Amino acid sequence: MNLLELLQENTIQAPLESTDRQGAIDELVEVLAHADCISDRKKIKQLVWERELQRTTGIGEGLAIPHGRCDTIDKMVMAMGRPATPIDFSSPDKRPVELIILLVSPTDNTSDHIQALGRISRLMVNRAFREAAYSTEDAKSLYNLFHDELVSSSV
User: Fold this and answer.
1) Can you name the residues that pair with 83 across neighbouring β-strands?
2) How many angstroms separate the CA atoms of 100 and 64, rounded?
3) In 10 A of CB 135, how many CB atoms?
4) How far is it between the farthest Cα atoms of the chain?
5) With contact defined as beta carbons under 8 Å apart, do 4 and 147 qualify?
6) Phi, psi of 40 (to 5 degrees)
7) Per-residue pLDDT tens for 36-51?
8) Distance CA 20, CA 65 (A)
């Protein structure tokens, strides 16, 4: 599972207009739909939101990774968004979210789904990288930051 294969500048929204977690998830699903990465936006919004309600995907340190698996897609897709104002995701550390990475996988692709979640988490452990991501001004800057880090790292 190579995150570089999932990273696309046209699936990054910075800043996000949404001010709450459901709105941010919906906005990122729309980004995927506009990039022709998915066709059933309504179903994916519902699946990801239902997963979010089971347990927050705000993992701490200002990061949320909402995710879901859907039988209407044939490959994993990723969207990224940086809220204009940090959003409460009910994260364990109570810190509002400054970066949201949405991951949607085919239903039968559990292994790659789990690997991608782990790789995103490991990438974001680096405090300097995380803070640089949270301070980007636009989608191009966020794309370039992730691209350069993924090319130079073994994550």
Assistant:
1) 16
2) 5
3) 12
4) 37
5) yes
6) -105, 70
7) 999 999 999 999 999 9
8) 14
